[in-house]
Amino acid sequence: MLLVDGGLAILARAMARRHPGLTARLAPSAGAKILIELSDVPCALLLTIEAASKPPSLRLATGADRKRATAIVGGDLDRLLDLLDGRVDGDTMFFSRDLFISGDTSAILLLRNALDSEDIDLFDDALELLGPLTRPARRIRHRIAALAQNMERRQHRRRPPRRSAVAAASDDRNGEA
């Protein structure tokens, strides 16, 4: 667990360095402790908003943290990562019940707005931790992504076009198969 906590702390500092506006936008909620519950993983994270000049801290939550949290946000890990990376909208997730919040909603709203204002790519932020290996790691990542896109396009071209339910019903009525 110490390794995970250490990794989370390093990642939080790296994100604060890459996104200095994030720390400034979170400053009005200084002192807030936001529990991030992962509904599909047996752990939770604690995000502590620090004073304006200090980056937020992130670590595994303990049972005591659950009681002291000023706000709670939760959902499936992959959906929360999509939200962080800006691939999904928080309102949509909330109203579809993929995201739940409780406690100090103003702290959650401030966090959401701060994250929305930044162009965050968590994977890219994590690659920064590799120091001199960051640039080659990014090239490898982009090559793998391009390869995956090409494979997806090829598979899409091989699939026969899907007929709509209306067209299929019309064909059935007309005796076509």
SSE layout and pairing:
Layout: H1 2-18, H2 20-26, E1 33-38, E2 44-48, E3 57-60, H3 63-68, E4 71-75, H4 77-84, H5 90-95, E5 99-103, H6 105-116, H7 122-127, H8 134-158, H9 165-173
Parallel strand pairs: 1-4
Antiparallel strand pairs: 1-2, 2-3, 4-5
Helix pairs in contact: 1-2, 2-6
Q: What key phrases describe this protein's structure?
A:
alpha+beta, Nonspecific Lipid-transfer Protein, Chain A, 9 helices, 14% strand
Describe the structure.
The structure is a single chain. Helix 1 (2-18) packs across helix 2 and helix 2 packs antiparallel against helix 6. It is built from nine helices and five strands; from the N terminus they run ααβββαβααβαααα. It has helices at 2-18, 20-26, 63-68, 77-84, 90-95, 105-116, 122-127, 134-158, 165-173; strands at residues 33-38, 44-48, 57-60, 71-75, 99-103. The protein folds into two domains: 2-120, 2-Layer Sandwich (Nonspecific Lipid-transfer Protein, Chain A); 126-173. Strands 3-2-1-4-5 form a five-stranded mixed β-sheet. The mean pLDDT is 82. The protein is α+β, with helices and mostly antiparallel strands and 177 residues long.
**How would you classify the helix and strand content by structural class?**
alpha+beta
Fourth CATH level, the homologous superfamily of the largest domain = SCP2 sterol-binding domain
Give the overall form.
globular
For this structure, the CATH topology of the largest domain is Nonspecific Lipid-transfer Protein, Chain A
Sequence stretches where pLDDT stays below 50 over 5 or more residues? none
Q: Strand count, sense and closure of the main sheet? A: 5 strands, mixed
N- and C-termini, Cα separation:
60 Å
Which architecture of the largest domain does the CATH hierarchy give at level 2? 2-Layer Sandwich
Instruction: Tell me what portion of residues adopts beta-strand conformation.
Output: 5-15%
How many DSSP-defined strands?
A: 5
What is the percent of helical residues?
A: 40-55%
Tell me the Rg in angstroms: 21 Å
Instruction: Walk across the major sheet and give the strand order.
Output: 3-2-1-4-5
Oligomer state of the chains in this structure: single chain
Mean pLDDT: 82
Number of helical segments with 4 or more residues: 9
Order of helices and strands: HHEEEHEHHEHHHH
Tally of domains:
2
